[in-house]
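Lab notebook, design round three. We kept the backbone fixed and only want residue identities now. Task for the bench partner: fill in a sequence for the structure below.
Input structure tokens:
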């Protein structure tokens, strides 16, 4: 692949000398074999599939329209096993400290009494909820789902950019990206040792059920409705978990319990996975003008008769000013040294730091402490003098609401740009998802967001960003090379492949003739029939043919698995069987369209070549 990594920023895939890093070598070989034209064609299939399945997000106040397809770049971001182990340890440490902090400040607040964190900073946070002070959620768990944003600086060090604890979004795109990639680029995964991510929905459901105040409780996903920016995700997760997707008008409180309206009558609700901010959850406790929540919900929550994930009040821990003290929380609660460092942060509420912020605004990135999605930011080096002055007026007016950080040169990654038909460097970050319960579950990977606007450092989808599939490998690379048998059968064990090859060469009589003799005679036909076209045996096989053959074999196995699943379902209908657990099927609507379209187009192309 033609690509210039440059030397100013850390490049995820290539070294400064232009050589592919060990864990990327298999993908580089695959891309070289596939070719740009075929890669572009499949990229178009991805866009079509995302549109057909409604994989969208919403941008508010955009003249081009509210809802649009989530941009996706198919060059995967790859993390080797040892690197992921470091990230996993750091995230586990961080979420434990954050949960301990929330438990503390909503009870004795010892960390504030000991002066580790200024009490003023916590109690003036817009997300601190006095209404639930003294309320301990089931199991003492506040942070059921955490999305922590990581970046890599110019030296390749992972840094925590921010924590998202209220209702972190994006995991549905992580799952949809992987699903799409395995259908459109199946051969890319062959022999790579990529760890799976599709268990996230079942792990989330297990976590939610564990927080239920009753056995076999009822779980629902509470959404603001179809006009919310993350509505696709709300619907997707509810479908994958096999639970009801509800709006506030579908729920009501009666007799000190929460109920759901159904066509069969009311049904008690025990766990609410809410995707609504605290302000809108209960008009009797928070904003009186909210039509999105459930009147009386907070009172039932206080009584311990309904669990809410994430717990009410968690937003104080992802306040961007409180974020600066997370390393201190780790030392205070865990007596450990932070594994993952923060980005250096200046706080507007501190008079000395505010003075520095105002004097060096042209070199800093300013953020509003309560905003998300890339809103409320000022990137000093990219802003005009007038933009800086206008923004600083807001900072002077309410300094508590702002922080500033030095500009960090986010790492870059090869990204395909259809308009130029080539691979260019684009800045990326990483949002892993942590499920926190009795155990900590971290999906191996996360959502890699990519700044698709050339030269931009802002990766948020609302600001023109897209995403990539994120691979976590079970090794550090390079991947084991695949032989012909492995390409055809997906056997990544060299020993097994060798054994299979030997068994095929042994005598398997057919009309008194050994298989080796039959192959020798059939070589004169110059073709081997493999089910998806012909591959020459007598001469050299091109790298592109091998890549296509790998894709064909992988698709053939996927199709066989699909057919087996359908057959098993038909068999199961012949006699009554116990109901399965409340989990959605692994295939979502329209899943087979990737494979069917790819096979149709590829077979047509093979026909033209012949």
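Proposed sequence:
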């Amino acid at each position: 692949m033609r690509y210039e990594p440059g030397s100013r920023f850390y490049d995820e895939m290539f070294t400064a000398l232009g050589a592919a890093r060990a864990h990327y070598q298999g993908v580089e070989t695959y891309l070289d074999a596939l070719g740009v034209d075929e890669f572009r064609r499949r990229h178009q299939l991805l866009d079509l599939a995302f549109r057909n399945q409604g994989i969208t997000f919403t941008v508010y106040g955009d003249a081009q329209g509210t809802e649009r397809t989530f941009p996706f770049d198919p060059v995967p971001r790859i993390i080797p096993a040892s690197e992921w182990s470091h990230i996993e340890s750091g995230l586990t440490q961080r979420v434990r400290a954050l949960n301990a902090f929330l438990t503390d400040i909503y009870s004795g607040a010892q960390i504030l009494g000991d002066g580790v964190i200024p009490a003023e900073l916590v109690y003036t946070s817009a997300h601190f909820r006095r209404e639930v002070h003294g309320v301990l959620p089931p199991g003492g768990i506040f942070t059921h789902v955490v999305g922590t944003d990581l970046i890599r600086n110019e030296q390749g060090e992972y840094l925590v950019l921010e924590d998202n604890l209220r209702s972190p979004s994006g995991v549905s795109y992580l799952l949809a990206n992987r699903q799409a990639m395995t259908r459109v680029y199946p051969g890319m995964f062959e022999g790579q040792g990529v760890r799976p991510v599709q268990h996230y929905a079942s792990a989330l459901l297990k976590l939610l059920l564990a927080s239920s105040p009753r056995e076999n409780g009822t779980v629902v996903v509470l959404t603001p409705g179809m006009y919310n920016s993350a509505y696709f995700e709300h619907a997707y997760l509810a479908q994958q978990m096999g639970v009801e997707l509800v709006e506030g008008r579908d729920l009501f409180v009666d007799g000190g319990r929460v109920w759901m309206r159904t066509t069969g009558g009311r049904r008690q609700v025990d766990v609410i996975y809410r995707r609504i901010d605290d302000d809108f959850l209960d008009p009797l406790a928070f904003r009186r003008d909210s039509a999105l929540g459930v009147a009386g919900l907070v009172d039932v929550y206080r009584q311990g008769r309904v669990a809410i994930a994430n717990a009410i009040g968690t937003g104080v821990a992802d306040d961007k000013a409180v974020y600066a003290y997370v390393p201190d929380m780790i030392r205070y609660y865990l007596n450990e040294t932070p594994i993952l460092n923060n980005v250096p942060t200046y706080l507007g509420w501190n008079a000395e730091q505010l003075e520095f912020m105002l004097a060096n605004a042209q070199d800093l990135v300013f953020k509003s402490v309560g905003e998300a999605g890339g809103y409320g930011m000022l990137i000093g080096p990219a802003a005009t003098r007038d933009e800086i002055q206008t923004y600083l007026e807001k900072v002077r007016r309410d300094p508590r609401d702002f922080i500033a950080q030095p500009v960090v040169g986010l790492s870059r990654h090869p990204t395909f740009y259809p308009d130029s038909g080539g691979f260019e460097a684009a800045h990326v970050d990483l949002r892993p998802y942590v499920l926190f319960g009795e155990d900590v579950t971290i999906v191996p990977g996360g959502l890699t967001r990519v700044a698709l606007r050339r030269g931009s450092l802002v990766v948020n989808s609302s600001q023109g960003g897209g995403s990539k599939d994120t691979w976590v490998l079970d090794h550090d690379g390079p991947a084991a090379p695949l032989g012909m048998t492995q390409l055809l059968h997906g056997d990544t064990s060299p020993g097994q492949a060798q054994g299979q090859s030997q068994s095929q060469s042994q005598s398997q009589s057919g009309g008194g003739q050994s298989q080796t003799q039959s192959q020798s005679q059939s070589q004169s036909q110059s073709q081997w029939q493999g089910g998806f076209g012909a591959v020459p045996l007598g001469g050299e096989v091109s790298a592109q043919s091998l890549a296509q053959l790998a894709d064909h074999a992988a698709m053939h196995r996927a199709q066989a698995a699909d057919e087996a699943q359908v057959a098993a379902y038909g068999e199961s209908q012949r006699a009554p069987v116990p109901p399965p657990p409340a989990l959605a099927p692994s295939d979502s609507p329209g899943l087979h369209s990737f494979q069917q379209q790819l096979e149709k187009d590829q077979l047509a192309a093979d026909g033209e070549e012949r």
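Keep this in mind before ordering anything: The domain at 214-305 is CATH 3.40.50.11290 (Rossmann fold).
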